[in-house]
Design goal:
Layout (H helix, E strand, L loop, with lengths): L14 E2 L12 H11 L1 E7 H4 L2 H10 L18 E6 L6 E7 L3
Antiparallel strand pairs: 1-3, 2-4, 3-4
């Protein structure tokens, strides 16, 4: 079971939990979702573009670097969320939040 770890981001603002599997580009959503289910966890992706105000997004895009440096992803509502990964995608930076599923 993955436990929260201290997030130490690189110079581009990225970080990935050391216990998270390395999925290749194009890995199926079913494979990823099955892994989370087997771990008893839920995942909530937060995209940088939808997380920033329009003005802040425009300032970020104007830099032209398109990395996650300086972005502090908004934690989802509810208890127990921790960061699993902040990484780049074809659609821009994303933060994967995760927590244990409670029954």
């Amino acid at each position: 079971m993955i436990e929260p770890k201290e997030v130490t981001r690189d110079n581009c603002g990225n970080w990935t939990h050391p216990d998270l599997p390395v999925w290749g580009e194009g890995e199926s959503g079913e494979t990823i979702n099955a892994w989370f289910a087997a771990q008893g966890m839920e995942r909530k992706p937060i995209m940088l573009e939808g997380d920033l105000s329009a003005d802040d997004y425009d300032k970020w895009a104007a830099k032209g670097d398109y990395d996650a440096e300086g972005w502090e992803p908004t934690k989802p509502d509810g208890e127990g969320w921790f960061i699993l990964s902040i990484h780049d995608t074809d659609d821009g930076p994303v933060c994967w939040w995760a927590r244990k599923v409670t029954t």
